Amino acid sequence: MGECNGVEYVGVDDELAPLRVDNFKKVSVLPLVFLIFYEVSGGPFGIEDSVGAAGPLLALLGFLIFPFIWSIPEALITAEMGTMFPENGGYVVWVSSALGPYWGFQQGWMKWLSGVIDNALYPVLFLDYLDSTIPSLSGGLPRIAAVLALTVVLTYMNYRGLHIVGSAATLLGLFSILPFVIMGFVAIPKLKPSRWLEVEKDIDWSLYLNTLFWNLNYWDSISTVAGEVENPKKTLPKSLFYALILVVLGYFFPLLIGTGAVPLDREAWTDGYFVDVASMVGGVWLSWWITGAAAASNLGMFIAEMSSDSFQLLGMAERGMLPSIFAKRSIYGTPLTGILFSACGVLLLSWMSFREIIAAENFLYCFGMILEFIAFVRSRIKYPAASRPYKIPVGRIGSILMCVPPTILICIVLALSSLKVATVSLIAVMIGLLLQPCLKCMEKKRWLKFSVSSDLPDLHCENHEPLVR
Hints:
By secondary structure, the protein is mostly helical. Helices cover 65% and strands 0% of the residues. The chain contains 16 helices and no strands.
């Protein structure tokens, strides 16, 4: 099967990823697993609200059932589409291939904005965990300076290379997971299974579903760095599988220990309550470790999310959707303009509250996921013979049915959004609808330089599939 521009993706049995500055170090399986772990989860920090909203039983069931409704379908689609299009840009390229470049740009705008909003949360949460030991960081100029300094340091780490980010994510992940393993063994004598069956009468469904959704989404984020992965057609599906197991166990096991070892105090189950649980179960030393692990987790989530956001902008520029300056790499192979752009977005949005951040990013993320589901089904219909190194073992009807439960969930999440969040999010969507034509106008008038990388296959050749072999 030929290509209009004569460029091919490497075959499934070949060892090289598509041409992408191959002299820079690629990311292997273990760092990729922890990058996915931090893009999706980062540990059980932030799941406490599910207990406060609905009680132990529904919280436990939620983190067991929800992955089948949302996480597994999203991870499977990411594995298939990510290996079908193993290049930076990820889901932007999927949507562009199936629906055209206009909708590909909208996907990129909504997902990038959602990611930046999400990333604005982590420096703030990191400082929240340090408030008890450094009270001066609780507000005012010291807190603003700390957020700025932390953002600069973590941004520099992204600038130095994705392999450094992957290694840092691995170390931070192990440090964040280990105290919960120890807490599990220490808590065994204190466990009372009857506590797991408690259900609250007054359930806050909005908080409950948003907490589940926020903690179990973003599986597709790793697709935007596929061009930086060593042999992505094999590495990506394998890493997604391992990460899925790690994320689900990393939520369910601490929740099982926390709700079973201490009496239920619904009002206490808010962000940071695992620190108190650790103190009650194992003592001050364990609570300090959990505090440190929570802080480290926020750092890991920040660097992983920024990598995804910045490489997405690079991938969009390589496809001619953004000015060429976004495609330029630093001496370390990283997207310098994308990193700086994402960092500025984080600083501008860091004033938002925790609940506003979760609700706003979920709203925008839902719109992006609807486009992904449509692109996935349409690519099955439009390109039935295209190369799929990893293919979900379902046909056309199966691919449609697989997207039905998560789509219903999306509608529920959107319906539960507040008027303020919905209004702000819809305004953001409208900006994207207008921004793409404006950029095209600037390209025609040559106010900005745009170019499509010759190293990439043509997504829209007539009479040809988008991929080869």
